[in-house]
């Protein structure tokens, strides 16, 4: 009984540690006062000012563009790479998987500085260099999400479809894709998450005039965080929360149908 009570208290403390800062952030986004400790009444003016701020909106749209483009391209490249790795022999597969894990274990600041030095040697830092950097560090996450699904799939079904006259593309779409679709989608969501809040790599590879939410927040910290940023963070949190909730509901419905 005591052990169960202590475990419940431990879980409550863990969830408080995780979600209490988010609750405080959301509360401050509705606070009419700029003070972090005094409640000045309920208001929505920070949300209104958030959408009217040119600096915030430019950083927001730049972040969304980089995130979606990087996630989409890295998902395509990562899926193709996972298919190629899965067809290799054991020794080659081990080498490539080891190479895939290196960017995950490497510090972001090291990756950011190395990419900056590479880009500066051949071109100027710009939106494109940030996009390439994001694609580069997203690909390993996609590979590691897709590869297990490919290994679980029955390769003989694909070969049977080819023997029956299906083209490789048609056989992939009809046979392989349904089995790896969940892994591809998980890799895409992982890429979105990693790109959305990345700071170190973005900071070192962005050009002048290019700002994402993370780099803009870093700049604003020197001046003091504006309440408009609380509102923006709350909107982003609920957007991701609703997306994940919809995905979980859809997956549960599929499991019940089976």
TrEMBL record:
PROSITE patterns: ABC_TM1 (PS50928). InterPro entries: Bact_Polyamine_Transport (IPR051789), MetI-like (IPR000515), MetI-like_sf (IPR035906). The keyword ATP-binding does not apply. The chain crosses the membrane at residues 9-30, 56-83, 95-119, 125-144, 229-249. One of its GO terms (biological process) is transmembrane transport. Its main location: membrane. It is found in: Cell membrane. Pfam families: BPD_transp_1 (PF00528). Keywords: Cell membrane, Membrane, Transmembrane, Transmembrane helix, Transport. PANTHER family: PUTRESCINE TRANSPORT SYSTEM PERMEASE PROTEIN POTI (PTHR43848:SF2). Belongs to the binding-protein-dependent transport system permease family. CysTW subfamily. This is Spermidine/putrescine transport system permease protein. It comes from Lachnobacterium bovis DSM 14045.
């Amino acid at each position: 009984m005591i052990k169960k009570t202590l475990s419940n208290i431990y879980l409550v403390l863990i969830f408080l540690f995780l979600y209490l800062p988010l609750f405080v952030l959301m509360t401050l986004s509705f606070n009419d006062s700029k003070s972090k400790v005094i409640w000045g009444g309920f208001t929505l003016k920070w949300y209104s000012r958030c959408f009217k701020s040119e600096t915030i909106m430019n950083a927001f749209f730049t972040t969304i563009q980089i995130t979606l483009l990087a996630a989409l391209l890295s998902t395509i490249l990562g899926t193709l790479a996972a298919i190629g790795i899965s067809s290799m022999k054991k020794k080659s597969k081990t080498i490539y998987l080891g190479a895939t894990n290196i960017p995950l274990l490497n510090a972001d600041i090291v990756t950011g500085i190395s990419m900056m030095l590479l880009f500066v040697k051949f071109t100027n830092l710009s939106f494109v260099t940030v996009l390439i950097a994001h694609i580069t560090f997203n690909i390993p996450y996609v590979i590691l999400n897709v590869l297990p699904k490919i290994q679980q799939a029955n390769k003989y079904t694909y070969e049977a479809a080819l023997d029956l006259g299906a083209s490789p593309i048609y056989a992939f779409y009809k046979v392989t894709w349904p089995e790896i679709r969940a892994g591809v989608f998980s890799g895409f969501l992982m890429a979105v998450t990693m790109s959305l809040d990345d700071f170190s790599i973005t900071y070192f590879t962005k050009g002048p005039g290019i700002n994402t939410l993370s780099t803009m927040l870093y700049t604003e910290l020197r001046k003091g965080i504006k309440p408009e940023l609380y509102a923006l963070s709350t909107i982003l949190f609920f957007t991701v929360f609703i997306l994940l909730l919809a995905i979980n509901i859809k997956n549960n419905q599929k499991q019940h149908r089976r």
